[in-house]
Amino acid sequence: DGNIKNCCPAGFYAELKDYVSAGTILVVQITGNSLGYSADEGVRSMSLAEVRWSKPMSVEGEACYATGLRYLNAY
Question: What does 39-51 look like in DSSP terms, one character per residue?
């Protein structure tokens, strides 16, 4: 679980709840959207992404991991 904070054509930056090692390939499912709709009402997308880097951080007092991912393909 996590939140995408910014995207570009090559990949995206996300704040994830769990640490994922660089080089790991993830199936990323994106639900909802920035307008506040629920997962049932919003956009849905899936893609493969490679973790490029991950480092611990704190957001509003909660531990998470700043993570950079590179798209491999999209559905």
Answer: TTTS-EEEEEEEE
pLDDT digits over 36-47, tens only?
555 565 556 788
- Model confidence, pTM: 0.76
Q: What residues have CB less than 8 Å from 40, skipping those under 6 apart?
A: none
19-33 confidence digits (pLDDT tens): 999 999 998 887 766
Beta carbons within 10 angstroms of residue 69's beta carbon: 26
- Take residue 57 and report the two structure tokens written for it: 């951080």
Q: How far apart are CA 34 and CA 3, in angstroms?
A: 11
